[in-house]
Amino acid sequence: MRKFTIVLCYELKEYFTNRLFMGLTVLLAVLGAALLCLPRFVDMSGFTGVKVVGEGEDASDADQEEQELFLYLDQAGVVKPEVLARFFPESQWQEAADEAQLRAAVEAQEAEAGFVVTGATQYEYYVFNKAMRDSNAAAFEQAMKQFYRMDVCAASGWNLEEITAMYDVPVTATEVVLNKDTESNYWYSYVLIIIVFMLIVYYGQMIAVSVTNEKSNRAIEVLVTSTSSNSLLFGKVIAGAIGGVFQMGVVLGAVLLSYQINRAQWGGQLDMFLHIPGEVLLAFAFFGLGGYLFYAFLYGAMGALVSKTEDISKSVSGLMIVIMAVYFFSLMQLNNVDGEIIKVLSFLPVSSYSTMFARIAMGTVSAWEIVVSFLILAGSIVGAGVLGAKIYRMGTLRYGNPIKITTILKDMKKKD
Predict the structure, then answer these.
(1) In sequence order, what E strands does 252-368 have?
(2) Please, which residues have CB within 8 angstroms of residue 159's CB and are 6 or more apart in sequence?
(3) What count of Cα atoms within 13 Å lies in the side-chain half-sphere of residue 315?
(4) What is the pLDDT of residues 195-253, one digit of tens each?
(5) Residue 409's pLDDT is what?
(6) What's the confidence (pLDDT) of residue 61?
(7) How far from the centroid of its chain's Cα atoms is residue 387's Cα?
(8) Which residue in 186, 246, 287, 340 has its CB near the most CB atoms, within 10 A?
(9) Residue 376: exposure state from Cβ atoms within 10 A (0-12, 13-18, ≥19)
(10) Model-level pTM greater than 0.70?
(11) Ranges of residues in the chain whose predicted pLDDT is under 50
(12) Pairwise CA distance, residues 324 & 192, whole Å
């Protein structure tokens, strides 16, 4: 235990005295928090729906300045400006003298767009640069339909309001979700799975590189004579876990806290990503950390199989295939978290860190299933640690070409 504590403290010191590590942690946390404070200082009402007006600025003047100008030319005599005002509530409309004036104003970008109405159901749309999500034409088309309805009803003596009320009768629905709202929980589950995947890959690589560096500079020869392989590997992995959780926790905590403080300014627009229930975060902490530890021990063992850092990619390629397969499958199955396949995978240690978490966040899962899955994961972590330590011990003093995992396992079997 004493040797393990020494290794753990040394590895933790390497993390927390590393200026790059600490600087990156602080930078990401501050940057994330600052970005979520933007609506307090910048008008993002186009996205958030919440308007922020600077001190000393008249709100009506600000609205006037931000209104987009549209031009129209009514060659058919059907346009009704009051209807256009309803379909384009924050815009100004002006009638152009002729088509040339309208086209020139759009080309000079003095007007957002222009419409030339050539018939009761026909129009031409003029725009300088059409955005990917340009909805002006669609809105104007609805306005044209309204013009047509009003004219037909007026000519036939019908009451348009009564007809509209008949077709657009309001229906009141009360929705009661008795368990989980999958649609609301989908996006933050998606984001958290990506985060734990990044945690595993990034810090797993760091552990593998750390082991290989010690082997390449032959420091491992001194280390294995002064302490046990179990203490070395467990110390490195647990220190990496603490370092990774610290960095991810600081950044994620800063982002979530900043959003809660500024949630009103965002108009709740980011709730699907950042308004995460406490029980979901707790499940993410336990299963995410468990999955990280499981793979971290295997990364440490893979690092011991090579003597040069440039060979690490070859050593961990098989492990990466498994991680990537689980990652993509978890994301694809988020629409079917109560399916039989994902239920089976939620009990396997290679995938439970994401699939069981997804089931807890979005599906129906019993308490006994959560307990059994976590116990299997915890037992697998210990097993991976012991196996990793044996591979680590047998691979550390072998130099030269990368050692195949099958060779190590055969040697272990012979020894037993």
Answers:
(1) none
(2) 153
(3) 28
(4) 888 888 888 888 888 777 766 655 555 555 566 667 777 887 788 778 888 888 899 88
(5) 65
(6) 47
(7) 34
(8) 287
(9) middle
(10) no
(11) 53-64
(12) 15
Q: How far is CA 5 from CA 177, 221, 226, in A?
A: 49, 20, 14
Going edge to edge, which strands form the sheet with 122-126?
91-95, 68-74, 113-119, 122-126
What is the reported pLDDT for 214? 66
Local structure of 117: helix, strand or coil = strand
For 69, the 3-state DSSP assignment is strand
| 302 close to 316: Cβ distance less than 8 angstroms | yes
Token pair belonging to 389: 């330590």
Token representation of residue 328: 């993509």
What is the DSSP code (8-state) at residue 130? -
What ranges make up the beta strands (E) of 168-280? none
What pLDDT, on a 0 to 100 scale, did the predictor assign at position 407?
67
Q: How far apart are CA 349 and CA 229, in angstroms?
A: 24
Structure tokens at 59: 């709100």
- Exposure b/e, 93-107, CB count within 10 A at least 16 = b: beebeeeeebbebbe
Helix 229-261 with 367-396: angle, nearest 10 deg: 130
CB-CB contact of 232 with 224 (8 Å) = yes
Residue entry with tokens 């295939």: 321
Which pLDDT belongs to residue 371?
92
What is the Cα–Cα distance from 88 to 142, expressed in whole angstroms? Answer: 11
Amino acid at 331: L
Q: What angle do CA 29, 200, 219 make, to 5 degrees?
A: 100
Closest of 339, 80, 302 to residue 201, by C-alpha: 302
DSSP sequence for 267-278: TTTTHHHH---H
Strands 113-119 and 122-126: antiparallel
Q: Reduced to 3 DSSP states, what percent helix, strand and coil does the chain have, rounded to the nearest 5? A: 70, 5, 25
Give, for 399, the enclosing helix (H) or strand (E). none
The pLDDT of residue 208? 82
pLDDT of residue 60: 46
Label residue 400 left, alpha or beta by phi (over 0 means left) and psi (-120 to 50 means alpha): left
Using an 8 Å Cβ cutoff, are 83 and 93 in contact? no
